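Step 1: inspect the first sequence and its tokens.
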Amino acid sequence: MRKYLASSLVMAGLSASSIALAEASTTGNESWVGLAKLGAAIAIGLGTFGAATGQGRASSAAMEGIARNPTSRGDVFVPLIIALAFMEFQALLSFIVALMLVG
């Protein structure tokens, strides 16, 4: 678990720093633009990491519960879909925050 969090943070940082360096080298903008892009990359990275982790755990628990008691499929399926939709909404909100930081 920690390995995945560390790798997602490193990837977000690398992508943000490359974007910020490319922006700084091509234009003479203020330094806050690069920091905003760094913040946007971190927001997207953490938001999608949290959503993907939550979706994986929820799906795993639902499948395990259905495997133990197949008659509970109807009772588990609808709350699972609703929970997955809320988790996906979290990832979309992080994307919107990132767009607001960059824009």
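Step 2: inspect the second sequence and its tokens, then contrast the two.
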Amino acid sequence: METEPQKRSILIIDDDRLLCSMVSEFLTGDAFRVKSAHSCSEGLDLCSRNHFDVVLLDQKLPDGEGSALCPRIIAFLENVKIIFITAFPSFKNALMAIESGAFSYLTKPFELKELRIAIEKCLRMNELERVEESIHYQSNRERFAGAWIGAAGSLAPISGLIATAARSTSPVLITGETGSGKSLVARLIHHESKRRGPFMAVNCSALPEALIESELFGHERGAFSGAHATKKGLMEIAENGSLLLDEIGEMGFHLQAKLLGVLDEMQVRRIGGVISHPLQVRFIAATNTPLEQKIRDREFREDLYYRLNVIRIHLPPLRERKEDIPLLVQSFIRELAPQRLLALQESDLKKLLDHDWPGNIRELRNVVEMAIIHSGSSHELHLPTLMTDAVSRESPSLEMAMDGEMLTLAEMEKRYAAFVAKKLNYNLTRTAKALGISLNTLKKKLPRRR
């Protein structure tokens, strides 16, 4: 079944009702969908609740001037093209219109054919911008695809889920250990979906709850101490794109309730605001902790879990798919040193295959990056001393230290993090980089030092 061509949406904001009616009748048809407003407030209300490709904006309106309204329209419709129409033509008015963000300028009276030509120019510019976005998308897609190894092997089922998620608008929940590639999968879903909007991400454990709330929902001027200006939240900024909520399990209960409301209504209200803004955003959540256990511990809302868990993608740890390591290494070398012909020695590759990789793909990438840095002008890569020590000595010593005790993976990760921290004289920033994890995550794994 063929889909009908998408109609372009036009908004006319003019207090001349006869003109609005005439233009609407002329434009309405197979190609255009037209709405009219007769004041600034009415036009702004329609812009806050609808998508428009082109706005025809009169300069003189009963409750304000078009030049003042223009930036407010763009705040709601970032890619909209505005055509100023006025009965008072002058160079000053034309300059004011362009400086306010208008794309084109028409003087009354004008021929309807002239108006149509102006609208078609706006739509052609929109198409050019979409082509540019498509080129940017292809560039990103190639870059991300290089790091996604296993589409024809161990990760073939996950690649199928990524394709399924890209075709849908439903929320996605990505689970897996720290560094297993959750953010990469989220970006792949976004780029495969060819959404026109941006990919935005926020780490729910990296900032205090109050700051996370402001980042996500935005705030109005004066909403709280320090809110000196109105600020859009990531939910609004990601319009027509995707928003990754990383480490969703660390989100506070208060924010969980607000997020559930947004997912149900697909509208967001800024902190201190009274207007709810409609959203067209794909939500992707990621977690390295079992949300089911957090629900049992009353740390995560069960209703939010079911709302997010529509499409579930679980990433296996790198130790369970070591056959991908050689390909990953080659991919990272191409990414990090594209102009150099570098190769890893067989003896070092064996060490990589013998390692358990508690930091997963992120740790492997960091090791490859360190090897490239230490290689200098040589064409051969050698593992850094830190990695060699960790692989050749630490794993057996950990095994011997167990004395038959079965350690949990979490405990193993803590011991390895402590080992690396000690090797680096407890420089936590360098330790976090060496492990390929965030500083916040490292602090949770390390015991407190007195």
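Step 3: confirm your contrast with the notes below.
Residues 148-314 form a domain with the Rossmann fold fold (CATH 3.40.50.300). The chain has 19 helices and 18 strands.
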